[in-house]
């Protein structure tokens, strides 16, 4: 097999996998609505490890946006630390690609011991796993399973599962209809981006990658950071967009790429940060719904998503361009994206 072929196919398959998953969710939505009745009245703690912890951050923010109290914690901290600050009663939302991640299962076990009458909701890609068996309700995307180590389509597809969950809890069945816009939008985004991801990825003069996002997009910025680290063993960091000015920008120079995941809510302020980083010598890339009426002067590259859905629903759409950048950077560094350095697909302890 060609080096990186599994990762290449997994990134490229996302429009089809998203569509298949959304179609399946359409048949499951009535049953899920019944199963989750009343759950919105109880706070959620969302947990995962690695990529799915970052997905937990994004999902918790999305749940809060629809009026459901939610916070995210890594599985290890939920399992091993005393969490005296948590609500007395809460629902546990556990996210794991494999459904076998040790710390996530530890967190579920501890939750069951301390909250025998509580509920566990699972988001995963693999059925009939310990996580699914331990859950009261499971949202599963088997089409998104992967051969490679680094999560790409599994992450974005599980993000769609989190979106459906938010819609069900909010009593908004039309959310699923809006999500159906995303597969076509992704095909259009990649057509617009053209060779840009390969050009950026192959540019080894870039040594420092910074990913900035606000609101629910912060979790996606963190995943962009992790994907760049995993596939390319490169210096990569993620920050809340405006927080980047408070110290981290001290290391920005001409070898830096600063990527902004631009929201609808505070786009003007986020664009101003990118312009400031350009002034410090960085190269800049903005991913945005549309250029709109904003002044993009000085931003090196702008990719429009044109999804037709809100910032709280389109988060998955920001990642494929960045996944391709990481993929091509790995090849340029003569690394194998399918088998990142020091990593395995599942962490079991």
DSSP helix count? Answer: 13
Quick check: average pLDDT? 95
In terms of per-residue confidence, which ranges show pLDDT below 50 for 5 or more consecutive residues?
none
CATH architecture of the largest domain: 3-Layer(aba) Sandwich
Q: Taking strands numbered 1, 2, ... along the chain, how are they ordered across the largest sheet?
A: 2-1-3-4-5
Largest sheet data: 5 strands, parallel
- Tell me the distance between the termini: 30 Å
How would you classify the helix and strand content by structural class? alpha/beta
Number of strands: 10
- Large-scale geometry: globular
Q: Radius of gyration over alpha carbons?
A: 19 Å
Q: Can you tell me the CATH superfamily of the largest domain?
A: Glucose-6-phosphate isomerase like protein, domain 1
Tally of individual domains = 2
Question: What do you see in this structure?
Answer:
- There is one protein chain.
- The chain is of the alpha/beta class and 349 residues long.
- It folds into two domains: 174 residues, Glucose-6-phosphate isomerase like protein, domain 1 (Rossmann fold); 148 residues, Glucose-6-phosphate isomerase like protein, domain 1 (Rossmann fold).
- The strands form two sheets. Strands 2-1-3-4-5 form a five-stranded parallel sheet, sandwiched between helices.
- The protein contains 13 helices and ten strands.
In short:
The chain is of the alpha/beta class and 349 residues long. It has helices at residues 5-12, 14-35, 51-65, 75-80, 102-114, 130-134, 153-169, 174-179, 182-193, 196-201, 217-232, 267-279, 319-332; strands at 44-48, 70-74, 91-96, 120-124, 137-140, 208-213, 235-240, 256-261, 283-288, 301-304. The chain is built from 13 helices and ten strands.
């Amino acid at each position: 097999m060609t080096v990186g072929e599994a990762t290449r196919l997994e990134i490229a398959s996302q429009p089809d996998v998203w569509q298949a998953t959304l179609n399946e969710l359409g048949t499951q939505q009535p049953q899920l609505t019944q199963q989750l009745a009343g759950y919105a009245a109880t706070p959620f703690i969302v947990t995962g490890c690695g990529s799915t912890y970052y997905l937990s951050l994004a999902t918790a923010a999305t749940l809060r946006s629809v009026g459901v109290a939610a916070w995210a914690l890594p599985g290890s901290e939920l399992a091993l630390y005393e969490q005296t600050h948590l609500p007395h009663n809460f629902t546990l939302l556990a996210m794991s690609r494999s459904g076998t991640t040790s710390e996530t299962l530890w967190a579920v076990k501890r939750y069951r011991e301390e909250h025998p009458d509580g509920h566990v909701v699972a988001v995963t890609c693999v059925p009939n796993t310990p996580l699914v068996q331990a859950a009261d309700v499971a949202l599963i995307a088997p089409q998104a399973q992967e051969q490679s180590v680094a999560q790409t389509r599994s992450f974005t597809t599980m993000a769609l599962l989190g979106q459906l969950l938010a819609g069900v809890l909010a009593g908004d069945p039309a959310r699923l209809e809006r999500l159906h816009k995303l597969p076509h939008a992704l095909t259009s985004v990649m057509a617009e981006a053209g060779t840009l991801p390969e050009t950026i990825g192959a540019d080894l003069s870039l040594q420092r990658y910074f990913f900035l996002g606000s609101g629910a997009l912060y979790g996606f910025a963190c995943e962009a950071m992790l994907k760049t680290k995993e596939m390319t063993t490169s210096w990569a960091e993620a920050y809340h967009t405006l927080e980047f000015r408070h110290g981290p920008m001290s290391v920005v120079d001409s070898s830096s790429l600063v990527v902004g995941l631009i929201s609808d809510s505070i786009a003007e302020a986020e664009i101003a940060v990118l312009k400031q980083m350009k002034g410090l010598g960085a190269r800049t890339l903005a991913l945005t719904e549309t250029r709109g009426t904003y002044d993009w002067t000085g931003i090196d590259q702008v990719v429009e998503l044109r999804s037709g859905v809100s910032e709280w629903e389109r988060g998955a759409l920001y990642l494929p361009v960045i996944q391709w950048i990481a993929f091509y950077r790995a090849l340029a560094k003569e690394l194998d994206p399918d088998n990142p350095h020091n990593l395995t697909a599942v962490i079991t302890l």
